[in-house]
Design goal:
Layout (H helix, E strand, L loop, with lengths): L1 E5 L3 H12 L3 E5 L11 H7 L5 E4 L5 H13 L5 E4 L5 H12 L4 E8 L4 H4 L2 E5 L2 H14 L9 E5 L3 H28 L16 H11 L5 H12 L15 H11 L5 H13 L5 H14 L9
Helix pairs in contact: 3-4, 7-10, 7-11, 7-12, 8-9, 9-12
């Protein structure tokens, strides 16, 4: 199989590598000349055998929309576009309608795995027709973790369903990160001079995190990231605590509000990120450390 891949950032470049390691031929395009295989999208389309499959892995929003529009103009009937970025599910419906005018198929793929995906594989949540899923299955089998397919891949439903599932996944991620961060702030600040002397404890938070990783119900990959960060510096001095939100958390909360579904923990976690841009604290630093650890995300340059 030979596919096109647009967007060779942190995840896109790792996905290209993993696909090639699993005998999927990939022609990639990125605006960065240091990583691209072809100079532009027309050249990428020309390099692919028909019917073509093009995976889009660029930032959600206007960038994705412009890439899809350009692809629709360049591709032919029977070709397939897969949006593997973090687009909002409602945008998938619009993009699919745009592609359908020319008889081009469309799928959405929610992708989880961060910087570990290259080695361990990605969790995949896919929306689209059964026929499109079957056609693209060699790609998904190459990207997902080794083992039973249903442990790393799920056809969630029709177009938009994959990104809807990934949106909720990321909303949960916000809340989990906030819970860990607030808990470790309680541990870190328990030797404060504002406390009675007999209630102060100088706790080794790195050692506690290590025990929790291996002998506790709260063990997780996020806790693994926390343990590594605290093992390097319990003060988290490299981080300002200014925490970005990249869209999915807001969309999860907005969708919950629109549908009158209580989402209190998720909403609080999102609000905490807003607060971090004005009054960052230790918990916010830990969230920044987690974001860098699992996704390579940099902190915003300012509090604006």
């Amino acid at each position: 199989m030979h596919i096109g891949l647009i967007g060779l950032g942190k995840m896109g470049s790792n996905m290209r590598t993993r696909l090639r390691e699993h005998n999927i031929e990939v022609t990639g395009f990125d605006r960065n000349p240091a990583v691209t295989d072809v100079p532009d999208i027309p050249a990428l389309v020309a390099a692919l055998p028909t019917p073509r499959i093009v995976w889009v892995m660029v930032p959600a929003g206007d960038i994705t929309s412009s890439v899809v529009t350009e692809l629709v103009g360049a591709l032919d009937k029977g070709d397939l576009i897969i949006d593997g970025g973090n687009s909002r599910f409602s945008e998938d419906i619009r993009h699919a309608e745009e592609a359908a005018v020319k008889g081009i198929d469309y799928m959405d793929a929610g992708v989880s795995g961060g910087v570990w995906g290259l080695e361990n594989g990605y969790g995949l949540m896919v929306g689209g027709t059964k026929e499109s899923v079957e056609r693209a299955m060699p790609i998904y089998d190459a990207l997902r973790p080794e083992g039973p397919r249903n442990e790393g891949f799920v056809h969630v439903g029709e177009i938009g369903a994959g990104h809807y599932a990934k949106m909720v996944h990321n909303g949960i991620e916000y809340a989990l990160m906030q819970a860990y961060a607030e808990g470790f702030q309680l541990l870190e600040e328990t030797d404060s001079e504002t406390l009675p002397a007999d209630e102060r404890f100088a706790l080794d938070t790195a050692a506690i995190a290590e025990v929790w990783r291996h002998g506790s119900i709260v063990s997780s990959q996020l806790l693994d990231v926390i343990a590594r960060a605290l093992g390097e510096d319990t003060s988290l001095g490299d981080f300002s605590g200014v925490v970005a939100d990249t869209g999915e958390g807001r969309w999860t909360v907005q969708t919950a509000i629109e549908r009158a579904i209580p989402a209190m923990a998720l909403t609080t976690a999102l609000n905490a990120r807003f607060r971090s841009r004005k009054q960052p604290n230790y918990a916010d630093k830990l969230i920044s450390a987690m974001r860098r650890g699992f996704g390579g995300h940099a902190e915003p340059k300012s509090k604006a």
